[in-house]
Design brief:
Four copies of one chain form a homotetramer. Chain A is α/β, with parallel strands linked by helices. Helices cover 33% and strands 18% of the residues of chain A. Chains in contact: A-B, A-C, A-D, B-C, B-D, C-D.
Chain lengths: 340, 340, 340, 340
């Protein structure tokens, strides 16, 4: 970490800053430039609060050299984290190879989820997804079947031998997730720190979606919240960021895949359905995610999108899902696993 | 609302769509263009789910003509909403004239909050602010004094006769807000819909901050969540949006003030401290907010920013606050109130 | 196109608007909604100036249903445009299969460009690239070898039998492009309309890079400028857009590939080198572009990046290039050409 | 400037880097951190090419401490640059007090420009504006009256005693600007470096508009191009940046005013008309710009916007202009000039 001192800073102010830093068992190397004086802080600075440093009267600016996270960092944990879902009939892993997470946007009935579950299981899904608590931007939109939906999802998963995932939008819902294998934290809750801390107390794997305007570094900081609260089983999910472009719902940032794999040991999953919001774009983006090295691809699959109570315009059919699985697996084999 | 049909759509698919729309007591006017067929939907469409419409097989695209909100809309509520905080010794109103919300970023001690409270009250603040539950991007940063901090804030407010405001980050904290007059919902929780619904059940005024990447329309939809859940006392707060520019922490969107005043009857407040993150920019942006017609300005004020446990770099002194109040009030008088 | 009338509009104002539209041989269908009156304009509206419509006193808003372009549109030209560079020893095509455009960021010497040219030709490049006129954000940075560089590039291309491409930054440079096969228009000139019109008068193929903050629609409008000025040989290039994320130089928008292929018949090329600015990300993003259906991939290749006078941090070696070509071609074969 | 070395870098590679830096008469201070080795470069580094540094094999990253510009910097030129237009009957200055630049978006006829010129001169404009070469996103839109329009503008300016400004979109138009007092470079040409260099050879004042996605630093770099080419008379113009928000055409970044005034000595002007694209927002944003300390406000004024051939929806009437001038001048007096 580099602290740039103000040109007119007083010796006593700088001394106070130096004492503050040294009290945290960090060393300082002072550099006198032509126009500037710098303090280079030596040691582990991830837990140093940059805002407090900037509040010192003598500080003009602070530049981080090291990352502001620790537990999620690849530097401290060279091997990939692989999460194994042992309770399922089929042993599913995320973090090695390519895992498919598939199912409807919303769970709407027993019949609907069972029918989709059978097909995606047959066609190669490793995990069954389905929304029960739906965060909707309008209070007048369908908000999901809630705990009843979760029960249907768990039953469907068991009947086809697949582990399940669903989104939790408030900690009070946790009791209904007993039979769900992975808890999803949605993009709009990525910086709901209270929720992250509480999820950190749960031992269940968590799929953490990147916020609409969250940087890669902020996504990792949110994962750091969960892990530092006790839960190391975090899966990261790129699902599109908000940009000026409105032709797609969001802009899918596939470069996040190789970048995250450089910076962290956690598995990286991609959701091309929500990101694009356009059915015709889902397949090319899924294949691209496979080619870019994703550990998982999350897809909205529904054979009857016209009855879908949300997001039907981006659903793919089970037949389209089958083709994506086949081509993606061939791509992964061809490029030599999820490594390049 | 305009529905654009696919060129190759089947009669039975269009009929099904028409029945769906008519079942919601809306009328349809069909228009045959050269290359396109359109359905113009006539009636109140704010509660029509655009995603469901798009899921119909025959639909190519949907364009809203009316806004997706109702209760917050200026069209249905011509007069400005004015919120009065009657319990305070000084009667404070938001929604008419210009109200100052001032205090430290974080409450750190009785002495600190009392000392600041005395000065901001003397210099023209209408509401005392102070953070107790702090949402911080790093789990290693100071997270606030929590309920103890809220107590200090309430006491300080009472001793100087000012109503108080503080941020609530999870509904379970609500019991500690009994003596706090306004509940703040932070930018990162603006789309935490569960929290919005629960806050809607509380009768206390709510200051809702615009999310980092939330559009004006989404901010209004979040306010609609609160009002439709039963609480009409919502204050909107522009606090900077995330853009590509990194020279300021966020980009303060002052055009949101007159735009929101066109679209909604709710009061509009601006927070130039968080938005810019640079002390020297706070005063010009506060005066600009006053000139743009804001109903309130929210400022981080602290006479000893070097001891501030967060965001010291954007704190202004009580003396600077005094000058801003004087100049802002003169500007408002000059431009003829908060109307242009 | 839908025109939303103001609620209080006068009959004579609406009549004037109606006459204006009808004078352009367009028909109007009026729709009376509950709160709004709409005019649906029927006919080809791409050349209708939306700004002029909005200037009419009675107009509240205008929504496009049809695209604002014509010549570039897939609707009017179903077959893919394939550009053939016949003058080269090797017949290179863009718009069918997958074409590699490779070479150094900047041409620095005869020796450098010849050495790279030999290797990329051997390893599968279809076109040789090299910068001669370099648009640099600092006036103090190396600005390229200019016309001398172009001559070296043309010679190198001829000696290895590859057509060549280089960026033109001002129309006065055109005379030096006689022996260059494709003219590149850079991202910062994508909306330099004077240049686009002049390039439209040239018959040579043009590779048009998407501007840093240009929408897909604006990119197509810029291509429309070139084609409507007489030059139909336009290649589109996605090279990353500017977003809030700073971990990569820009955010590569790979969804632009399938989206552009839906909307236009023009070939779509991707430049993962500039977009990411990080060597380790170039290969995964190149393979992802192939999987997403790109017609071409443009890469900075340089065996001695340390001597590179610009952008060395994103250069890949000729060996890395060889591997990318092999894997990408296998991916294209696997997914069944550039179609999905 | 701080260079972060790769952990595994070889001594000979670091030595080569050190020699490269020292050859540029800069000193190096090496700092050994716990996990990192840093080189702190001491001296004037604005002309050091960060891309070349990053291309060295041993370099992991480079962080600038000093700004990448020199001539535009406030550090090297403490006093505000004030530009005086002496040829006009009325002596107009930009860079002190508040100057109004007003006129139609497009010049459409002698009658139109003369009529507007008379009124804006009477109501307090310091400079007459009018577009003759119009950069339009569609090739089918009105492109301006070109040199004929410039002549009308110059005549109108002379007849009312006001200096004039118009946009130049290509250097070949320069001959027609003989009687125009200020050359405007539009947002889409802000990084057209060839044009900037050529404009640098002209002695006439230049108003440089910020690009749609240009950072403050990039705007200053473009000004540095002009000044380093010989023309010190540069006026900067904030005109809105592109963000995710679509309710306004662009997002007017008023914080750019005080920020630019900290960083540079050049005058700062704001254009609220183009930025918002909404007539009702122009006045509040103009007053806000005055309150934020702008040196100038640029406004589209037209008494008959319905006949406007472009951008009529954001035009204000001459009466509205009169009110803005009066209120803005009162605000500037109140806040104590353009300083805070």
């Amino acid at each position: 970490m580099i602290i740039i001192l103000k040109n007119d800073s007083q010796k006593e102010d700088v001394d106070r800053l130096v004492r503050f830093i040294e009290a945290q068992e960090l060393k300082i190397n002072e550099v006198d430039g032509t126009d500037r004086r710098l303090l280079c802080i030596i040691g582990h600075t991830y837990n140093l609060d940059i805002d407090i440093l900037k509040s010192f009267k003598c500080v003009a600016d602070v530049k981080r050299i090291d990352e502001p996270y620790n537990l999620v960092s690849r530097e401290n944990h060279r091997d990939d984290t692989v999460i194994t879902l042992t309770e399922a009939a089929v042993k599913t892993q995320i973090g090695t190879g390519l895992t498919f997470i598939a199912g409807p946007c919303s769970i709407e009935s027993e019949e609907q989820i069972n029918s989709i579950a059978r097909k995606v299981a047959e066609y190669g899904a490793g995990i069954l997804r389905g929304g029960a608590y739906k965060p909707r931007s309008s209070p007048y939109s369908f908000q999901g079947l809630k705990n009843e939906g979760l029960r249907m999802l768990a039953d469907a998963g068991k009947s086809v031998g697949l582990p399940t995932i669903s989104e939790l939008t408030e900690i009070s819902q946790l009791e209904y997730f007993d039979d769900i294998d992975i808890i999803q934290i949605g993009a709009r809750n990525m910086q709901n720190y209270e929720l992250l801390k509480e999820i950190g107390a749960v031992k269940k794997p968590v799929l953490l979606k990147r916020g609409l305007s969250a940087t890669i570094s902020e996504l990792l900081m949110s994962a750091e919240y969960i892990i530092s609260s006790g839960n190391p089983n975090v899966i990261l999910c790129e699902r599109g960021i908000r940009t000026f472009e409105t032709a797609t719902r969001n802009t899918l940032d596939l470069s996040a895949i190789p970048l995250l794999k450089l910076k962290t040991h956690l598995p990286v999953v991609v959701d091309p359905s929500h990101a694009t919001g356009i059915e015709e774009l889902v397949s090319p983006m899924a294949l691209a995610a496979a080619a870019a090295g994703a550990h998982g691809i999350m897809l909205e699959v529904n054979d009857n999108p016209e009855q879908a109570l949300c997001d039907g315009q981006q659903c793919i059919s089970t037949e389209a899902f089958k083709t994506i699985v086949e081509k993606s697996k061939a791509i992964v084999e061809l490029i030599g696993g999820s490594k390049h």
